[in-house]
Amino acid sequence: MTADEPVKRPEEPAAKKGAEPSGVDLARVALRAAKEQARARGDAAQQKKQARRGGLRSGARADGRDPMALGAAINRLLTERGWETPAAVGGVMGRWPQIVGEDLANHCVPEKYDEDERVLIVRCDSTAWATNLRLLAPQLVARLNEDLGHGTVRFLKVNGPGGPPRRYGPLRAPGSTGPGDTYG
């Protein structure tokens, strides 16, 4: 085996789904890492040049040693880790009334976002509102993707209300389905 040939390693078992970015997210993370490495190489070369001239000196311009603002540090962390999409979806959940309107927001609440499947799960307080939201789902998905970026939300899963727990006992008719049609 020569030094030019790559070492073949046995296939590692697949990591838990969603543990590592894939596709476009992986490309973004790789591009950011390459930019950071290039910036670090440039900073190292500049420091060597300054060391030859008599040591590092502080100057009027910003450099890598300066403190960062909290917002800039958080934005940098989000981009380094590839958390832009979950953070954007979290922002949508916070701005839900502005996106869907006050009337719909009073009856339907986003519960969670499945990043792997790109599905937003919404719970409504009655079956009538759940049916209405299912009819509006294509327009709502288009509006969300317009705000977040194409393909961020592929599907809107609408759940009806969760009813009260079923009570069993002597006062219940055998085979009854429960307390009406608003829980289904």
What does this structure look like?
By secondary structure, this protein is mainly alpha-helical. It is built from 6 helices and 3 strands; from the N terminus they run αααααββαβ. It has a 3-stranded mixed beta sheet with strand order 1-2-3. A hairpin with a 4-residue loop joins β1 and β2. The longest helix is centred in the first third of the chain and has 29 residues, at 24-52. The radius of gyration is 26 Å and the shape is elongated.
Descriptive terms for the model:
elongated, three-stranded mixed beta sheet, 184 residues, mainly alpha, 6 helices
Short account of what is shown:
With 184 residues, the chain is mainly alpha-helical.
Note the main sheet.
Answer: 3 strands, mixed
Unreliable residue runs: 1-18
- N-to-C CA distance: 65 Å
Strand content of the residues, in percent? 5-15%
Number of helices: 6
Q: Could you give the order of the helices and strands?
A: HHHHHEEHE
Residue-averaged pLDDT, rounded? 76
Shape: elongated
Query: Roughly what percent helix?
Result: 40-55%
